Amino acid sequence: MTPVTIVGAGLGGLTLARVLHVHGLPAIVYEAEASAGARTQGGMLDIHERDGQLALKAAGLFDPFRALIHAGGEASRVLDPQGAVLMDQPDDGTGGRPEVLRGELRRLLLDSLPAGTVQWGRKLARVAALGDGQHELTFTDGASVTTGLLVGADGAWSKVRPLLSDATPAYAGATFIDTYLFDADARYPATAQAVGGGGMFAMTPGRGIFAHREPGGTLHAYIGLRRPAEWIAAIDFGDAAAAKARIAAEFDGWAPALTTLITHSDTPPVPRLLHTLPIGHRWSRVPGVTLLGDAAHLAPPAGEGANLAMLDGAELAQAIAAHPGDIEAALAVYESVMFPRGAVAAAGAHRILDLCLGDSAPFGLLDFFAGAFARRDASGEG
Length: 382
Ligand SMILES: Cc1cc2nc3c(=O)[nH]c(=O)nc-3n(C[C@H](O)[C@H](O)[C@H](O)COP(=O)(O)OP(=O)(O)OC[C@H]3O[C@@H](n4cnc5c(N)ncnc54)[C@H](O)[C@@H]3O)c2cc1C
Description:
FAD binding, single chain, Flavin-dependent monooxygenase, 17 strands, 5-stranded parallel β-sheet, 382 residues, cytoplasm
């Protein structure tokens, strides 16, 4: 069989390549970045039993994944702006949503692929339909290839998506600004204590500080602001000190233990304007091409996107393996499950963003957590 052509070596594209490999099917992944280490793959990811963990089992990588888990990272707490604890749920060790570093998970997938599977420094510039399910990909270096099975795993700004749909991502009205404190237990003990052992949420309508403890005493925060894109664009992020001061001004009167995550960030603050595809984004079958992950169902960050991308990749590989010689049947089966799942997840992600930064903050999120923990306790699951 000719290799499945995958654009994008994110978690979704790599899981697809790996599960194809497990089934003895070849794949080639074209990735824009120059190398595996070209960009820091920051952040902790909760890997859920219902999606990310299923994908890792299909990939035959569940045991090595378990070795990457950051113990204690499942704790969550909600604080008020003065740092008083409104909710505190310790990590009970049952492991339903274990946390790992995104970069370590990506490395695990990369190392599990045959040498040469990922072609680094190959940025797709354009793709043309040749008919009969064939597509020609042209890269920014001028090289081109033709394929009979193309998968766009190229994220939010997918260059493959226009073959299937006119949809483009729209600004969701909120921005997350990345900050880090290193060695925080020693250098910023009050902040380290406020964040606790896992995730910490502190918010009022329109603004929030969401932090995660990472291994080695690192605190990683997303400073959430519900503001127009122009408001964010007016901040000079090239001047880190001025940007920190401008953002911190939005949290005037908040406890210094919390605002330290902004004012003392060891890294320059990086704005991530949240964009989304329409909820329920889908397309009619086009021969020889499909999408997975963010390229298919980009939604606000709510702890699901990477998990879904991995499950999409695993299920697409399984569908291809189950329909030898019938690519269209494989893609139809995959999309019939992926579309409704992506729609439900996107609707849930918009709801969570609203609970975090909307007018009900923080009480809507407290109710949400209370409901989730009650359901979990009732079902006896971890
Ligand atoms: C602030 C923030 C926090 C998040 N937190 C979480 C979380 O805690 N848990 C969770 O599950 N999800 C989280 N997400 C969502 C998650 O990051 C994405 O849903 C997930 O990365 C999607 O995976 P993917 O493989 O579809 O795409 P991506 O991870 O975006 O990978 C796409 C790949 O394609 C490559 N590419 C792009 N264009 C081209 C091109 N033209 N040619 C070749 N290669 C190309 C890119 O370089 C990249 O390597 C978060 C997102 C944000 C913005």
